[in-house]
Amino acid sequence: MENRKPFPGEPKEIVLIPDIPYTYKVDVDVCDLPVSGGKPRKRCRVTVDFLPGDIEEMKGRGMSEEEILAHYDAYLYDLVRASLVSEWTCVSGREEVLDIVRKGAFRV
Fold it and tell me: Of 47, 54, 81, 90, which shows the fewest CB atoms inside 10 Å?
């Protein structure tokens, strides 16, 4: 199936491509899906930080691991939306980014 341009007001379809993670952050390329095949076009790069102090503060407020990951999922969405100045939907890559956060934030 060939991708099509979104209608005005329709969320953009985005691919998230995480870079090699650092200890407490990961840089993520935000790419458009090409309309007629080809490689995704890079729109911007965002950084998701998951510092130990932030994680401990959320745990101190009684947040569970699932709630903390939901917080980072919402943070990622808002960060990309602010960069694109548009609503968006993730076609691929979101779970990979959240898996990096999970492994980095909850290491034993």
Answer: 47
Check: CB of residue 58 under 8 Å from CB of residue 74: no
Residue 4 predicted with pLDDT over 80: no
Cα separation, 4 vs 2, whole angstroms: 7
pLDDT digits (tens, 9 = 90+) for 22-46: 989 999 999 987 766 777 889 999 9
Beta bridge partners, 46, equal 28
> Facing residues of 49 across strands?
25
**Residue 24 and residue 104 in contact, taking contact as beta carbons nearer than 8 Å:** yes
Report the distance separating Cα 15 and Cα 33, nearest Å. Answer: 7
Length of the chain: 108
